[in-house]
Structure formats: C-alpha cells, structure tokens
From TrEMBL:
PROSITE patterns: ODR_DC_2_2
Keyword terms of this UniProt record: Decarboxylase, Lyase, Pyridoxal phosphate
Species name: Methylobacterium brachythecii
Protein name: Diaminopimelate decarboxylase
CDD domains per UniProt: PLPDE_III_Btrk_like (cd06839)
Top-level enzyme category: lyase
Domain Orn/DAP/Arg decarboxylase 2 N-terminal, residue spans: 55-299
Modified residues (N6-(pyridoxal phosphate)lysine): 72
Length: 447
C-alpha cells in the first residue's frame, strides 16, 4: 500500500486514488460521474484501498496479533463486510453496532464489545445472541454482566479494560494515564481480578489496553503494546492461569495535516520482532490470542467527501468557496471534533487538476461560522457546479457528525470495488413528514 510522508501534498493523496483523463477517480470511476449519478454532497469509498491497508497491516503484525476492525470508525455494514471478508474480527461499542457487525457477516465469536457505558438492555441483547468477549469498565458493569449471565445460565467471556500508567502514553488524544472514565486503573489490577473471579457466571479471558488515538510514531505504538503485554503477564500471574486473550487496542493514525508523517509500518514491524520474542518466552501468555483494533487506519484513506460549489465570492480581499456540504456531514473536517487548533484536511478540486491554484476558504451551507471546511486551501478558480473533494474521509465522517443540524438532506454513501459501484446508503430527503400538534397539516395557533 502506498505510504506518504510529511512532504506530501493534498495532490499526492489524491494521486493515490488515481485519475481519469486528468480528473479525480475512485476505483477507475470519475468522481464527476458518481456525483452526477448520486448527487452531492456524497461520500465515496474505495474497497481495494481498504483491502490494501488491511493486508499491509496484517503482514506487519503477523505472528503477534490478529486484527479486529473498530467499527465506530465507519459503521456502514458494507464497509465492515469488506474487512470481514479479509478475515478481520469486529470491535463494537453499542447494540446497534452489534447489529451492523452481524449484517456485515461477522460471527458472534468474532465480535468484541467495549465502551464505558453499556446499557443493561444492550448487554442482555448481545449475551443472548452470542458475543466473543465483553470488556468490563466499571464495578457496576461487572455486576450487570454477572447477573445477566446467571439469569441466562451461561458463562460470559469477559476482559478487563485497564487504564494504564502515564509511562505508556502517546498519541493525539490520550485515553489513559490520568483520571479517566475508561476502564480500571492499572494500580488496582489485582483487586478487580479478584472481584471478577468471584462471579461464577463470568469467565475472565483477558485484558484490554487502549492508550490513545491517532498515533503516527511506530516506536510509541510498539512501546504501548509492550506495556500491555507486561500487564497481561502480571494479570495472568495473579489469576493463576494463562490468559485466553490480550487486546492491545487501536490508535494507529493516518496523516491529515501538513507536516504529519504516515505511520512507518516497516519500523513497526522491526519493533514487533522483540514483542514476538517476549510472548514466546512467557508461558502464561504464549498461547493467548493477541489482537489489535484499528479503525481509521484501515478505512480513513479509502474515503472522500465530495461537495459541489454553490458560489465563489470575494469578501474584503478573501476568496470563499461555498459548497453544498459542511460540518453537519463531516464534523471532523471542520475541526470541531476534538481539535484544539483547527487545521485543514487535504482538499482538492475534482476536475481540471492542472489549473493554477490560489488560497481560499471553503465553507458549507450552514448559518454558522463553525461551518468552515478549509481555511487555507489551495484550489483553482472554481465556479458553481464544479466539485471539491475532502480526502482522508473514510473514518469518523457521516456518523460522527450532527446530521440533523438545519435539516439539510443527508449525503449518499457509495462503495466502488474494482469498477463496480454500490449505493450503500441512500441520500436522505429534506421532505420529511411533519405532524403539527393539535391539528395535523392545518396551521395551529402558537401563542
């Protein structure tokens, strides 16, 4: 799979998709054709790029870990199905994601259920239908799962999510090493093992460690995994038997912004050699199924979000492009999904890619200054009807956004696979049925 470095431009990322007669193409299909067929705004995903990312990572971690796709990154069952066909398991965080995972073809034993706030009805739903493992994150959750298992007369496989010490930190958004709603603090590991072991309806299979997200440094990632493996040995020693599973978490990042460097899988593979040796030399974890749970790394670079230019205007010397898509469909690109300093995703014009470019601000159609998708984009002199594409958009796009804001139509989602085009989510309508209080369609007095 092609890798990019910190010197790569938006155009370099666009080139990874390919072109048709000079215009941006996905799987050999011009984006303009897809926009004409399905309308804009529009999400488009390339199945071959998803497969390429999975295979490259699978080769890198072979002999150490299997891969479970974190479905929250993009829960469309058609996307998850591509990865299930490749051999991935799925990691979920809700009952709805369990339903999506099953629709994608995942077998119950190949699904892990994590998350700090699982509702009792969600837990009962997945336990009744089968689940590979539930990752426990609070004492209340231990009691709930134990009670459900006892009521159903089944032994529920569980793992303990551990909030690691500060020494294992790294990544753009840190998930541990400080007071956290996620998991049990590392220093209390033995005590919580005793609590779980006291419940006959629970089978403590392993531990789960998730330290941070958007990690681009292979050494940081390998160091976190090493810490997780050491914790696994400690847990097994206290438990008095080998572990069945070790979940080292996800967090593998992709480059979004100028100056960021892609995760070096060659370097990660070099570091993994030592981790393989460590596991082989530890009888209590030697036979455990070690997994990682990447999300954006697998699907992020394979997707783009396309919008049509509605207006090009100059305001006090600054050029603005107003497009028909915005933060309500792609909150992350607007910088309003956890960014402290708002930086631009890679943005390109879909047509006439050789034209001279100049700075502009790309905004959406919403009545708020927050609806800004690029602040320093270098784009041609685009006119109404031309297309803009936001790259690196296959993860944390549509379902991570306030879709209902201002009641604009939701975009379609399309999967391109070797020249085949599949509509995997239909475009929403702004003509939703409305029932007014006190009289249906007739105007009601509002005082």
């Amino acid at each position: 799979m092609p890798q990019i470095d910190g010197r790569s431009s938006s155009q370099d990322l666009a080139d990874l998709f390919g072109s048709h007669e000079g215009d941006l193409a996905i799987g050999g299909i011009p984006l303009t054709n897809l926009a004409e067929q399905f309308g804009t705004p529009l999400y488009v995903y390339d199945a071959e790029r998803i497969r390429g990312a999975y295979r490259h990572l699978s080769e890198t971690v072979a002999g150490l870990a299997g891969i479970y796709y974190s479905i929250k990154a993009n829960p469309n069952p058609a996307i998850a199905h591509v990865l299930v066909e490749e051999g991935a398991g799925l990691e979920i965080a809700s009952a709805a994601e369990y339903i999506a995972a099953r629709a994608a073809g995942a077998q119950p034993k190949r699904i892990l259920f994590a998350g700090p706030g699982k509702r009792p009805d969600e837990l009962a739903y997945v336990i009744e239908r089968g689940i590979g493992e539930i990752h426990l994150e609070s004492h209340e959750e231990i009691a709930r799962v134990a009670a459900i298992g006892q009521g159903l007369g089944v032994e529920v496989p569980v793992a303990l999510r551990i909030n690691p010490s500060a020494t294992a930190q790294g990544g753009a958004m840190r998930m541990g090493g400080k007071p956290s709603p996620f998991g049990f603090d590392e220093e209390g590991l033995e005590a919580v093992i005793d609590v779980v072991s006291a419940h006959p309806s629970l089978r403590l299979a392993g531990i789960h460690l998730f330290v941070g997200t958007q990690i681009l440094d292979a050494d940081v990632l390998a160091g976190q995994w090493a810490h997780g493996l050491r914790l696994a040995v400690r847990a097994a020693q206290h438990l008095g038997r080998p572990l069945d599973t070790i979940d080292l978490g996800g967090g593998l990042g992709i480059p979004y912004f100028q100056g960021e460097t892609a995760l070096d899988l060659q370097r990660l593979g070099e570091r993994i050699q030592d981790l393989r040796t460590f596991v082989r030399n530890q009888p209590l974890i030697r036979d455990a199924a070690v997994v990682i749970e990447p999300g954006r790394f697998l699907v992020g670079p394979a997707g783009l979000y396309a919008g049509q230019v509605l207006a090009s205007k100059i305001s006090r010397g600054t050029r603005f492009l107003v497009i028909d898509g915005g933060m309500h469909h792609h909150l992350a690109a607007s910088g309003n999904l956890g960014q402290v300093i708002k930086r631009d995703y890679p943005v390109v014009a879909a047509t006439s890619r050789g034209r001279e470019t100049s700075p502009c601000i790309v905004v959406g159609p919403l009545c708020t200054p927050l609806d800004t998708l690029a602040r320093q984009a270098m784009l041609p002199d685009l006119r109404a009807g031309e297309l803009v594409a936001i790259l690196q958009s296959g993860a944390y796009g549509l379902t991570a956004s306030p879709i209902g804001f201002l009641s604009h139509p939701s975009p379609a989602e399309v999967l391109v696979d070797g020249g085949r085009i599949s509509l995997i989510r239909a475009r929403g309508s702004f003509e939703a049925p409305i029932t007014l209080p006190g009289g249906g369609g007739q105007g009601s007095h509002v005082g």
